[in-house]
Design a protein that fits this description.
One of its GO terms (biological process) is DNA-templated transcription initiation. The protein has 7 helices and no strands. It is mainly alpha-helical. The protein folds into 2 domains: 1-70, Arc Repressor Mutant, subunit A (Orthogonal Bundle); 71-148, Four Helix Bundle (Hemerythrin (Met), subunit A) (Up-down Bundle), CATH 1.20.120. Helix 1 packs across helix 3, helix 4 (72-82) crosses helix 5 (92-109) and helix 5 (92-109) crosses helix 6. The longest helix has 28 residues, at 6-33. The N and C termini lie far apart (45 Å). The mean pLDDT is 88.
């Protein structure tokens, strides 16, 4: 997929905002009620009807998925730039998966009003997720001098 312009990013993030607000309300309701709230309870808490809640969630998810899809190349860029030693190995798919998790985290936590670009913000989260997965799975590269 082609790279999105900054105006398209801003538009998609604007579409995601109602979904984020609904998810925050849902989280608060879950704490207060002790169980996951139904769509009716969520609609009542937000002064909307169930159809509006479903539509806002659907639009938000579609915008989020589009942002993820159009920024997947960023994951490959980070892997090729910072983790070149692992690109040919058997762990490449693991690195890609960790990078995509980082991209999703970046998109979920990104705030356009801070005036950062998504790509700059995402680089940190992608690298962080990859390094964390390498640490957790504890695979390390043995340098050539230590192999013998």
């Amino acid at each position: 997929p082609p790279v999105l312009s900054s105006t398209e990013h801003a538009w998609l993030f604007k579409l995601m905002q109602p979904m984020k607000a609904l998810l925050q309300v849902k989280e608060e309701l879950e704490k207060n009620l002790g169980h996951e709230p139904t769509e009716g309870e969520l609609a009542k808490a937000t002064n909307m009807n169930i159809v509006q809640v479903k539509k806002q969630m659907e639009i938000g998810r579609a915008a989020r998925n589009k942002l993820i899809k159009h920024n997947l190349r960023l994951v490959l860029f980070v892997i090729n730039r910072y983790f070149q030693d692992f690109t040919n190995g058997s762990r490449f798919q693991d690195l890609c998966q960790a990078g995509v998790k980082g991209l999703i985290t970046a998109i979920d936590r990104f705030e356009p009003k801070r005036r950062f670009r998504l790509s700059t913000y995402s680089l940190f989260w992608i690298r962080h997720a990859i390094i964390r997965s390498m640490t957790v799975s504890s695979f390390t590269r043995v340098s050539f001098g230590l192999e013998s």
